[in-house]
Specification:
703 residues; two-stranded parallel ribbon; cytoplasm; coiled coil
Length: 703
Amino acid sequence: QSAVNVPRDFEGCSTLRKYFGQLHYLQSRIPMGAEQEAAVPIAWTEIFSGKTVTHEDIKYEQACILYNLGALHSMLGAMDKRVSEECAAGAFTYLRDHFPHSYSVDMSHQILNLNINLMLGQAQECLLEKSMLDNRKSFLVARISAQVVDYYKEACRALENSETASLLGKIQKDWKKLVQMKIYYFAAVAHLHMGKQAEEQQKFGERVIYFQSALDKLNEAIKLAKGQPETVQEALRFTMDVIGGKYNSAKKDNDFIYHEAVPALDTLQSVKGAPLVKALPVNPTDPAVTGPDIFAKLVPMAAHEASSLYSEEKAKLLRDVMAKIEAKNEVLDQFMDSMQLDPETVDNLDMYSHIPPILMEKCAALSVRPDTVKNLVQSMQVLSGVFTDVEASLKEIRDLLEEDEAQERKLQELLGKVPPPQGSPLPPSPGLAEVSKECSKYMEVHEKASFTNTELHKAMNLHIGNLRLLSGPLEQVRAALPSPALTEDDKQVLQNLKRILAKVQEMRDQRMSLEQQLREMIQKDDITTSLVTTDRSEMKKLFEEQLKKYDQIKVYLEQNLAAQENVLKALTDANVKYAAVRKALAEVEHKWNTTVQTLVASYEAYEDLMKKSQEGKDFYTDLEGKAAKLLEKARAACQAAEANRQQILEKEMKKQPPPRPTAPKPALQRKQLELETGGPDAGDLPPLSSLVLSELPEELRSL
């Protein structure tokens, strides 16, 4: 009861440890494990889901107590002054290494790894602060800070696990963002102190690049710190002042005084972390913690102690093996990330063997509307016809107006009035002024609409071919989509790469399987019965004999880890040969996607084209009616203007004086006239040409 309702203080930690130790004593004597005779139901509530989980296994009770011990330590650590580097990781580490992970999801391997690295990271932070306050050497401070980064990277990796994400829900994103912010922040602190070390060594070029890197990483941390408390923002601003000042000063000194070359950051030796924090140890058999064994009379204490020692030997074996596995996994993950090779899509040739669903959907939609293209073409043809009619009517009106202006100009000349210079329009006849004004208005509207009409025809011409293709047989659609043309050598390169990628996955799967087998073997390995009957002097020998059962699986794991180097070398060679094929496939995939998008766009543009075509028809039909009426009006006005000009001309002719009498001609001339005009009677009349000229006004005779 005390352990379930534990107070939130160090007394509570003591209670949990004592209860855990007594449970350890109990389970080594009474058969309360899973499916054993004295097993009883044990229920606890999962921390994240709130579900009640029940197991008939005394170890489940121990596991939950350990989890709560780690949680309580973390709470007390958060409340305490940050001067101690001891941390709550011990309880979670012991839980991970000694208990099954199948009891509940909040005790999964990933969640426990997350908890362990969060605790270690925060403890290392405390040590970093202490080192900075104690003015330790810059290089040591940089290494301590780099280790903080390493712990938080491990925590971030655990957070990115799909099981962890689904379990934590919304807080996973918040935690991940905070952890990433801390990664960048402490990386900036590490590089700040590497820059200070370079300054101490008078390496002024290195100093600049380290301070610059620190500044870049701090800026990333500031971006991720949005929404964090004001205390965090204030700390970031203070750090920005320090690093920004250091960088500006270092750069200025190097530019104007030292003139040292600034090396690239990746050419400098990376900062290796220094893990200096320690997890609070968990020893279930420490009498100073657990108190007297209340079951001491049931089983010899020596056997119990020996069992604990054997458990520690198993845990040590597991830690050694896991350290090697995790080191190799880290190399493998980094290598595969740099390659950017996804076994599922390394050739993506299957996508070219069929029409994508989105395109099939458009083809199906057009198959039930067979007249789609025909309707569009007809609609555009009708629009073109109406457009042409309007243009013809407006041109005829313009021609009538121009002809009327020409006639008016001639009349002005005949009447002796000086018309405006050529190119300057005459004021239109009174009846045509309104016609001219309306014609100009219609012409302006027509010109604007003409541009829209042209664009509409361009759009139709752009999409009509694609719509015909989508309306046609599917074979033609498939043939229109680009597909890669690979040579036999290219196909061989692809097959080889896929084979090696499959090998990489096989190596991963085998490694995970062997690790799981090892964990299960260690979990099930209970030699308590043997220990009770074994003499204390023979314990060490018994341990050695019992641990030999793990030799075979260790050999398999060593072989698996050793094979990684050869597999990655083969993958590197295969990837070099794959480069050209990869580029060609990427280009074809881009063309394929572009073609699909273009065809889909043409389908989606159809309704818009039909709508705009109908709007164009309605507009031009209306304009055609107005233009036709205006044409009739123009014709009538032009006829009236012409009649008016004739009347003016006749009036002018009547105003002219009669022809003046001519002087008598000499006989010779008169005779000649008689001959020319046909007789002496005709000689009394002037010649026809002279008669006509004399009848015209003087200003018209030149015509």
